[in-house]
Design brief:
Elements (H helix, E strand, L loop, with lengths): L2 E8 L4 H8 L4 H7 L5 H19 L9 E2 L5 E2 L5 E8 L2 E8 L3 E7 L13 H6 L5 H18 L19 E6 L5 E8 L4 E6 L3
Parallel strand pairs: 1-9
Antiparallel strand pairs: 1-5, 2-3, 4-5, 6-8, 7-8
Length: 201
Amino acid sequence: MRTVEVWQAGLSQPPELVRSLEAMLSDEERERASRLAAAPRWIVARAALRIVLAGRLGIHPGDVELASSEHGKPEILGSALRFNLSHSADLAVIALTEHAEVGIDVEHTSRRSRAVERTLTPAEHAALNGHDRHTELLRIWCRKEALAKAGGGGLGWAPESFDTQQPGDFSLSDLLLQDGYVGALALQGATAEVTLHRLHL
């Protein structure tokens, strides 16, 4: 059975560690971070991605050469590795597998869910069971985001066009993350075994 590794990393790190992690990034990444209000968390998330990829490639995190697909999704040219990164509040999640497109999304449960209602398909509305509507809606949102990212969708995606009850060529899995977070994974093809890992920076 295929396996997808899901790595979790905490984003609230001391400034001296953030500076150390920033040294792993490319000049382009550092320049991008300089324009962000939440730069330290973005730096930690991006460095965490490099560390996870470097572990599989057997190289230094700073030597990982990240490219962008035509839709802007990060990739490593010529590699069978497929990966995706998402972060919310103080948590980053990274999905890693081979030979199959993958997407991942995480949301903190403090996020408002009212706007998600407008993106639901009839099938998604019918699947709501009402036990904890807020959390259910955030889970559906995570599935939509993961599905869009696995398929290469980026800016300008229409969430109402993604039906998580009928994901087409992709399989969807909810992730059991730490308290206060919900997440979902989308994988091209049949369901795979998902293994959860904690990255200690």
